[in-house]
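If you are new to this repository, start here. Below is one unmodified record pulled from the training split, so you can see the exact layout before writing a loader.
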Amino acid sequence: MKTRHKRLALVATGLAVLGVAAWLILSAFQKNLVFFFTPTQILAGEAPHGRSFRVGGMVEKGSLVHQPDGLTWTFVVTDMAHNINVNYRGILPDLFKEGKGVVAEGQLGNDNVFAAEQVLAKHDENYMPPDAAYALKKGREANAANQRMGATTESGNTNGNASAKGLK
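And here is the target side for that same chain:
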């Protein structure tokens, strides 16, 4: 074999080894990659089924229920626009409270109940993950818009021509 052919075989082998290494690294990242979704995104169908992801928001006040088995908890996570029910079997963090921020990791069931494998409580009064803060802000804006629309509907002016009644 000529030196030229040996060099070409060595380069081809090196590229093949690099390709296999890159594939192994990327597949490991793909298995451990966990995305964050809000209740609004989950109910819109954006969250993956059969795959682990994180849901974040606020624990709705009055929703925390301790099941009789002593280890199972159910609560509702809200982004102020939509809610998602969460089931968790385990010990909740000390900082976990109703009305506070939470991030839960797990999978969404067919019944749209999130089965959490891990629950993370907000650790500082001033800190909230940027995605969760943005989602809560958008949820509050959507709630405010819905309330304004409801006030307009309740006043009887649903189609914008209240003054037309006086012209007849």
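Two things worth knowing about this chain: The beta strands are 36-37, 53-59, 65-66, 72-78, 83-89, 101-108, 113-121. Residues 153-168 have pLDDT under 50 and may be disordered.
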